[in-house]
Design a protein that fits this description.
By secondary structure, the protein is an alpha+beta fold. Helices cover 38% and strands 12% of the residues.
């Protein structure tokens, strides 16, 4: 970040010098920024070699050892975790998570993710839910399928 800011400031200051528009206060501000950036860049390089990595590694090992003592049943575990079986861990509550088409929970249609309103639901083969409506025509019961879009 400091190198980028330093380069941007240098570019702008160079442009002002070339156009002979640099004023004294802008020159003083640029020089002060270059000194600040140099200090911070040197600090960053120093911290690459002088840091708390050794104690961090010890603390991380201790934290990982502690986590292994905790019961899996208290926590929702990542679905793709290779270290645990899919049945381990607390059951995920996903009823409030919108699912993709094709994924469905019990009682939901794949196309809409909503429960059918009349309890009669089937698939019409094109990914849309079809509902069976029963009516009477000429005194006889008539069953027809209507897709979710209303086209029979």
């Amino acid at each position: 970040m400091w190198l980028h800011a330093w380069a941007c400031t240098l570019s702008r200051f160079n442009q002002q010098i070339e156009r002979n528009t640099a004023q004294d206060h802008e020159k003083a501000a640029a020089m002060h920024f270059f000194d600040m950036a140099d200090h911070e860049i040197q600090r960053c390089f120093h911290e690459l070699h002088e840091n708390a990595d050794e104690t961090m590694l010890t603390a991380a090992d201790a934290a990982l050892a502690y986590v292994k003592t905790l019961p899996d049943s208290d926590y929702v575990l990542p679905e793709k975790s290779p270290a645990v079986s899919p049945s381990a861990g607390r059951k995920r509550q996903q009823e409030f998570v919108k699912q993709f088409p094709g994924d469905k929970h019990a009682g939901e249609s794949a196309a809409t993710g909503h429960e059918p309103t009349n309890g009669n639901s089937s698939s019409n083969g094109n990914g849309q839910a079809a509902q069976t409506h029963v009516g009477t025509v000429g005194g006889q019961a008539n069953a027809s399928e209507a897709t979710a879009s209303g086209v029979a």
